[in-house]
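Please, structure for the following, as tokens.
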Amino acid sequence: MNDQPGDEYEALFRPDAPATEPPEVKTDSAGPVETGRVFKSQGVQGNEDALLALPTSRTTKLRSLERVNSPLKSEHVSQGGIALHAPAPGRDGYIPAPEAPKEKRIHSTGRGAVFGSLGALWIYGITIGCTLVVGLLDVLIFGGEPGAFTGVGLLAVSIFVSLAVRSQDDSQAIFAPAIAFFVMAITVGQINVTDTSLTNRFISVFFILGNNWFWVIGSTIIALGVVAFRRRSLR
């Protein structure tokens, strides 16, 4: 009797399977790998390969959708205004302070803080005070009634106050010369009047104003011209 197993026993056992290698993944190096689609909104510049999120053929049915290829007009205006008024930085990166308005620049110039800063009370006080002083010198030095010397002083002080008055009270510089000369005529102009009666004093005031009318009118016209020029330059 043969003890060796036969072929029928060997068939009952599965032979050892050979080791298998993992399958190789073949990649196509000829073209890019598609990972998805890129979409863009209406009006976006560049990325021509991207698809519109909403095709143009469907936009006609939407009332609130409008294709815009350029920035809004208001953006151009705001950018232009910023570029026009904003100071440009220097080479060292320092940005200068913005310029002050015209009226403030007049106050900060080298002419001093007096010009363009005096109120109405200062205008009348300076005009009347200087006219009284000049009229007194005219009467004491030259005798008689106030004349050309007082007129020249009135003209000079009228030019000064029309430049020194602030813009809110500039109209007061126009009326100040006539009022100052009238005050001078009824006070200092009466020093050399011999007749002290009230009637003669009124008559002397009338003659003083009549003989010096061109100084009064001329000072008023010049003050008016200076005020008008300042108003135009501040616009």
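The beta strands are 39-40, 51-52. Residues 120-233 form one domain.
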